[in-house]
Amino acid sequence: MGNEKQVDAGREQVDTDAFLRSVARLHRLATRNAANLDVPPAQMRLLALVSDLGPARIGDLAEADHSSQPTMTTQVQRAEAHGWLTRTPDPDDARASLIALSPKGGRQLAAARAARTAAIAPLFAELGPRDAATLNRAVAIVDRLLTNPSPD
Amino acid sequence: MGNEKQVDAGREQVDTDAFLRSVARLHRLATRNAANLDVPPAQMRLLALVSDLGPARIGDLAEADHSSQPTMTTQVQRAEAHGWLTRTPDPDDARASLIALSPKGGRQLAAARAARTAAIAPLFAELGPRDAATLNRAVAIVDRLLTNPSPD
DNA sequence: TTGCAAAACATAGAGAATCTATCTAATGTA
DNA sequence: TACATTAGATAGATTCTCTATGTTTTGCAA
Description:
2 copies of one chain form a homodimer.
Chain A: H1 16-33, H2 41-53, H3 58-65, H4 69-81, E1 85-89, E2 97-101, H5 103-125, H6 129-147
Antiparallel strand pairs in A: 1-2
Helix pairs in contact in A: 2-4, 2-5, 3-4
The structure holds a DNA duplex.
């Protein structure tokens, strides 16, 4: 029947379940190997996000991160307590603040990225150039999907 | 300079940091969209794992899942309480038990997979066949990396 | 065969990451 | 001016995970 894995060449679809499972397993492995780092995973995500977005409001960060506003409030408070983020009043709206990466936060992000890469990169070492290229292309595709304003 | 993204054709390497970040963002999105399901993420991972491995000991499950033994003990106890997993004494070792998927667990796994797929698949709907094929290939590569006995 | 280190699992305690529900304060508009 | 809306903050509860430690079997060795 050739239904081995909808490889139908012409209208191939993503095997969503396999995809999600791989993501979950990868995330498990990544957070485990990064457990000894001094920046917890959610804080990493936040620092990288603020680094990309520049000064942004809590609500915007929550939306971009696909998390709830209370969650983002808490994460920002933690990062602020570490001195990684700064908060300035939004000149246009007294209810809001603008969250930005501090110099210390920038250094911490760079250091954590390096440490995290050092911890995980060996896993990829055995991959040939073809497979590595495939993974890089997959990352680009996913990033595009995640960054686009979800159309629903 | 063309160092845009180590695309050097010949000795391309995985951009580990971008890769890990995408995984973290995907995991965030996936767990959020699956939040209303009745099988929490870690339990999903466990049921899928047991479904693959067949009857296995706690320690083997922990190793395959890249998590600690106490964590696996807890997760197994929860799944057991739901009637999703069964525990039988290991005939070869009175200290150990063999964990297996119950019929109810199998049904729950299938249902949860379907629900999860329905929740996430729309994200992939807009992808063309080329991109879908790339993602499927990436999943295969990653699964191979994750399943191989890590050589360290 | 007894004794003890090792192995397999369970328990305790703590911290991170989330969510929903709700509260406060500022905006904007009728 | 009054009231609905919006931006964040707070409270309380889960889930998920870890390290440290305890308990029971095993298995080997004297």
